[in-house]
Amino acid sequence: MKSHFQLLQVNLQFQDYKFAILCFITAFVVTMLCIPVIIKLAKKYNLYDMPSERKEHLFPIPTMGGIAVVAGMMTALFMWLPARYEAMQVSFFFSIIVIFCMGIMDDVKNLSARYKFLIQIGLAILMATAGIRITSFEGLFGIYDLPLAAQYTFTLLTIVGVTNAFNLIDGIDGLAGGLGFMSLTTLGIFLTLNRDMTSALIAFSLAGGIVAFLYFNLNPAKIFLGDTGSLVLGFSIAVLCIRLMQVNTAATLPHAPLFILGIVFIPVFDTIRVFAIRIWKGKSPFQADKTHIHHMLTKSGFSHVFASRLICCLHGFILIEVYWLRTMRAEYILLILTAFMLITTVVLKHIHVLFKKPATGLSRSFIELD
What we know:
The protein is mostly helical. 66% of the residues lie in helices and 3% in strands. The protein has 14 helices and 4 strands. Strand 1 and strand 2 (10-13) form a beta hairpin. The N and C termini lie far apart (56 Å). Residues 357-370 have low confidence and may be disordered.
């Protein structure tokens, strides 16, 4: 009899995850070994994320931890992923290299938003041309198959939007990594269930690197992801989400677009909300401020550990609920998700009134430089 484990009404066959576990462990070990080296190099060459009015930390913290995460992921995939040289696979790894290099340049020289958007749009078009496209809404709002122009449009918006959403949510210790790990693990499981082992191994490899990074990033953080890591994380999750929509069968996920939305819902909803507020106030949507969901908690005096854990718990709740509600009509699921986040945002914005917790001025990281 095949060994299996039932999780949330999903039967997981352990033998299907042998290479996934190897990828996860390999990426974890490589990242763990690389991060101390990167911290030393960052201190030697003065590569710090400096404190500012719009940031949460009070002391300079080494950045570009994403280098170690990407090194772990790529090492694991080089060792365990069969090389097929398919258009989608080649385009994905080329895109990762480009966005990785762009992230390093942004961490070092602070590139303009316009320049980064142009590169992201180009990579999104490349992935769509290679076959990673949103081809159907699967009945959401009565829409099924999309015309080619709409496929490219929605794919571009998804990849660029999710990439930047994870970049913007990376505001306090452990948050982007925690959300990313949960999303990648979920994607890895369901990609495996749909027999797309290549995409699943990518998800588990990046998840392994993220877990190792979190060991050094949980408050008080010794290193930050930087744009080097957060952009790669967001881009990879966006591409894997679209891939899951393509390979999914109705028997696995009846409403794949809604489940995929649940995987990225908190970062995406928060980004849309923040941009809408800035535009409503007559400001540029790209003008940095402290109106993100995690800022609501830290400004109320809650620690970064509590804020990260709470938001990750909310993310976990959304993932569970969107799966449990999979037999419900798609429009109702979307309404429930939106209402949940609206109510959550209002509660978090006024949580200081409920708890009357005075601001403590806690910083993102309190470690002293060596």
